[in-house]
Amino acid sequence: MGLLRYTIYRLIQAIPVLIGISVITFVLANLAPGDPVRLMLQGQQADEELIRTIEQRYGLDQPLHVRYWNYMTGLVQGDLGYSIHRDRPVADLMLERTGPTLLLVLSAYLFAILTAIPLGVIAAKRRNEPTDHISRIVALIGVSTPSFWIGIMLIIVFAVKLGVLPSAGLVYPWQPPEAAGHGSYLEHWSETIRHLILPMIALGTLQMATLMRVERTQMIESLQEEYVKLARAYGVPERTILRKHAFRSAQLPIITIIGLNLSTALGGAVLVETVFAINGIGRLFIEAIQQLDYQLIMGITMVLGFMFVIGVVITDISYAYIDPRVTYGERD
Amino acid sequence: MATTESQLDDQQPDAEGGSADEEFEARVGWRYTLKKVKRDATARIGLYIVAFVIFIAAFAAIDSNLSRLTFGALSDYTAAQALPFFDHPTRIPPPGEGNPNQPPMFLDGGTLSQPLGTDPQGRDYFTRIVYGSQVSVSVGLAATAIGLIGGTIIGSIAGYYGGWVDDVLMRSVETVYAIPPLVLIIVFTVFVSGGSPDIQYAVIGVGIAFIPVFARIIRSRVLSVREMDYIEAARAAGVKDRNIIRRHVIPNSFAPVMVYATLQIGVTILIVAGLSFLGYGAQPPTPDWGEMLRIAHGRYMHSNIWLSIWPGLAILVTIMGFNLFGDGLQDALDPRIKN
């Protein structure tokens, strides 16, 4: 099977999971006692006639399977539903908030990769030396600390006590500098970075710790491979061995871990956005939950699920692309 | 039927079994694992931390005035008020007798009787942190147990029968796995509770969200166990599938899952802390670490930083304990990873 056919095959395989996600979110959102309109009103008194009119207008008076069918036909056409609560299409609401979340998650991954890989390699090279022990302790603390607490601690140190970095909000690099009151792009973008540093570390620490552990284990294993021993016997310098022979084969599992951890990172974004008051998808989700805006909740859950599935498919495909040993068409 | 089954049980690889079984047992058995864990320094530290936290949690349940006992601090909690699973009519604690927002003992204005200071309502923070261990440990264990039981049932059935049963079960499980756990659990908690979330719903939600990972591990083990001779023998003797799964397949697939469960307790505590932090886990006045951080972050991040520090440290130490212990178990079971 060629790469293109493998890609199509993996995408087709993802379809049942995507349908499953829609069923789960739909069932959960409709599991609530009482109907969505009443739930949205949160116990406030409302005219029975008015409730019935709202229900009819949005098709909520129809049986569950009919509503699901309507929802799905809309979804296939790119319609994520309509938020009664905010009187706007769900897709529009989400699009507005996607940028900040993407910026946050991508920079967190960048931070994680740029720190984890060198640290993992050094730890593997100096196995059981002090450097290795320190990096392992850092990794252990990293996987044991809640991201939102790291965020709070960073705010306390760098914003409250030292006052060097901002504690809330984000400056959007895609906006013109004038909109944020900045004179030039240089000032605008440096503000973006300043706002991004703390949330990026808060969200990226868990990823960094996980990646570091994997990188270390992988490097230790690949440094014991036959071809590394052979290269050493030929007198290839240790640096070259590390860079050219051992390093490359150790990176494959890292890609898989990045893909699988996407789900944790997106969940973590909900927390980190709350701590740093960043108006991304995560906060939109929390707002939707607080308002029991169930169309919006469904839309977000669905899109996050889709993003994860597509992320895993992309990692699978890139894995197959990078590693010629991967036989196409095999699961896992 | 009963005799056939008990005879078949004897054919399972026991510690007292034949020489081949003995060798098998020597590599994967519990006794060997425990011995290795005892020798492993990190696992030992982890075990001590876990034991310490569980001891504190249990002790707090027995004596509701731990703080008074050890430090002479004033606290009006009772166990029923602190335990999240008891719906106590008077869950709102009486106001503490200390000053609100008192700093910890090593700062000016702190007292020895309130070692970590007091919260904005004047309640002793040390007592609340101690009670928090109870919430975290019980929540971690309960949610992991739900995931473990659910995952074991689904994974063993999927692995044992294979074919379309496997496909249907594992696809459904993958679907649950695809939604970010925190998001799925919040949606579950809010909608199932009808808009008034509490810790019970969070525990069930977390348990369900972690069924997939357990199901996958169990299934992969079952795939190899079901090819064993003793399963074949049981089937030939006419033992029902249900009994084969219950008495032979599950017990022999369990060891790696237990390791994973230990690590999972830490993850569960982490997620529930996040839930409470967002307001969808434990509700006030339950002394939950995540809930305490929510209050600290909301209003007191500038005026009283200590309110943010202690609960986070408590979470960190607890989760680190479970992680160290789990890592040690894993090293003992999988010598390939060991240095």
UniProtKB/TrEMBL annotation, chain A:
One of its GO terms (biological process) is transmembrane transport. InterPro entries: BPD_transp_1_N, MetI-like, MetI-like_sf. It is found in: Cell membrane. It comes from the Archaea. Its main location: membrane. GO terms for cellular component: plasma membrane. Coiled coil: none annotated. Pfam families: BPD_transp_1, BPD_transp_1_N. PANTHER family: DIPEPTIDE TRANSPORT SYSTEM PERMEASE PROTEIN DPPB-RELATED. Belongs to the binding-protein-dependent transport system permease family. This is Peptide/nickel transport system permease protein. The lineage of its organism: Archaea, Methanobacteriati, Methanobacteriota, Stenosarchaea group, Halobacteria.
UniProtKB/TrEMBL annotation, chain B:
InterPro entries: BP-dependent_transpt_permease, MetI-like, MetI-like_sf. The keyword Mitochondrion does not apply. It comes from the Archaea. Gene3D superfamilies: MetI-like. Residues 133-326 form the ABC transmembrane type-1 domain. GO terms for cellular component: plasma membrane. Its main location: membrane. Keywords: Cell membrane, Membrane, Transmembrane, Transmembrane helix, Transport. Pfam families: BPD_transp_1 (PF00528). It is a multi-pass membrane protein. Residues 1-22 are annotated as: Disordered. GO terms for biological process: transmembrane transport. Residues 7-22 have a biased composition (Acidic residues). Signal peptide: none annotated. It is found in: Cell membrane. Belongs to the binding-protein-dependent transport system permease family. PANTHER family: D,D-DIPEPTIDE TRANSPORT SYSTEM PERMEASE PROTEIN DDPC-RELATED, OLIGOPEPTIDE TRANSPORT SYSTEM PERMEASE PROTEIN APPC. This is Peptide/nickel transport system permease protein. It comes from Natronorubrum texcoconense.
